[in-house]
Specification:
5-stranded parallel β-sheet; 6-stranded mixed β-sheet; alpha/beta; 15 helices; about 20% strand; Rossmann fold; 2 domains
């Protein structure tokens, strides 16, 4: 299946370097090599491979190379200045850099790379991307398998489960340990298991610390590592122009839908969360606008699952239900006090309709249209 970001990456490469980042095994290398098919003499180099590393260090590629693909280059000491030198003194090669560390790694590059790159974040397949590629994979399949390419198209659920077990083991024993020295591997494993069971609920660092018998700051640090490696993403309450709301506990969601342990409601909420997050990241990467995914919460505990925010203004509020078609009372509360479009998306809904300004939408149709 072709990724929808391929064409815009090809266009951006004509102007600047392109950084393509995202979770392990989401398809970054495959996409980079698909982009390379449009070039006469592309050259792929993976910093994890010793032979490739020597070529990188010595800049030993031929002058007729027209596309350089650097994979996992951020693991190289001084990689930012290295890239600056290659870009500024090169012989016209286009440069595509891929990696599994979160984009803030690149943003810390500072002035050395300022104005020299476009960034693209590649996430798992969503219903909207599958729709645009002409796939017949359903939301029900995504709920079960998740959007990572290999388990999504696996022959059966057993093969998908085997992939996920290997994937989780690699994340913990390879990626996390490579990212930072961890002294208590058991604690980080247990934290990941706890988070898998608390999707959609506000997270208390103190409470998690008590469960794990470690310091709250350590819990926060471990979650930041999970974020940096594209294992989880965090959303916080929106505060501006919302009376009595709190910037307090975040909610945690997983990029890999298959990692969720919970009921149908938690499964559906995570799928909506990762689809919305993918939607706003693509808009940011392709338009340069500032967007965010938040949720709404007051001091009294009135809460709406999600809100999409552009330039610090709410674009729409979204509540997720598995089967309840009656407008949620908290969604009604916010919609009667603030002039933001309000939607309740429902997993099992035959007919869409509108009541008191709130749209009641079918989840599959809504996600396909993002």
């Amino acid at each position: 299946m072709e990724r929808v970001q391929k064409k815009i990456i090809q266009q951006d490469l004509q102007k600047k370097m392109v950084f393509l980042v995202g979770p392990r095994q989401v398809g970054k290398t495959w996409l980079a090599k698909e982009v390379a098919k449009e070039y006469k003499n592309p050259f792929y180099l993976n910093y994890d491979h010793p032979d490739d590393r020597n070529i990188i260090m010595q800049r030993a590629w031929l002058n007729d190379v027209d596309l350089l693909i650097f994979d996992e280059l951020h693991k190289m000491s001084g990689w930012k200045n290295y890239l600056k030198g290659v870009f500024d003194t090169g012989t016209g090669q286009h440069i595509l850099v891929t990696g599994s560390a979160r984009l803030h790694t690149f943003r810390q590059a500072g002035d050395s790379l300022a104005g020299r790159y476009f960034a693209h974040r590649l996430l798992p397949f969503s219903p909207a991307e599958l729709m645009r590629t002409g796939s017949n994979i359903t939301v029900k399949q995504l709920l079960k398998r998740g959007g990572f390419p290999e388990p999504l198209v696996a022959e059966n659920d057993i093969e998908a489960d085997r992939w996920r077990r290997q994937y989780m083991d690699s994340l913990i024993r390879t990626d996390i340990l490579d990212f930072e020295r961890i002294h208590d591997l058991r604690a980080i494993q247990l934290l990941l298991e706890l988070l898998r069971r608390r999707v959609g609920s506000p997270i208390s660092y103190k409470s998690l610390a008590e469960d794990l018998q470690i310091a709250p700051n350590t819990v926060k640090k471990y979650i930041q590592i999970f974020e940096a490696l594209f294992i989880v993403f965090r959303i916080t309450p929106f505060s501006r122009n919302i009376s009595r709301s709190l910037l307090k506990e975040p909610k945690i969601y997983f990029y890999d839908q298959g990692m969720i342990v919970g009921n149908q409601g938690a499964q559906l909420e995570n799928l909506v969360a990762v689809s919305l997050y993918k939607h706003i990241l693509e808009r940011e990467d392709q338009t340069g606008k500032y967007l965010a995914l938040n949720y709404l919460r007051t001091k009294e505990g009135k809460e709406v699952d999600f809100c999409i925010v552009e330039d610090e203004q709410i674009e729409k509020m979204i509540e997720v239900k598995t089967s309840d078609t009656k407008p949620d009372k908290n969604l009604v509360y916010f919609s009667t006090r603030h002039p933001f479009p309000a939607l309740q998306i429902v997993g099992q809904l035959k007919k869409e309709y509108k009541v008191n300004g709130i749209e009641i939408r079918n989840v599959e149709k809504f996600l396909h249209q993002l």
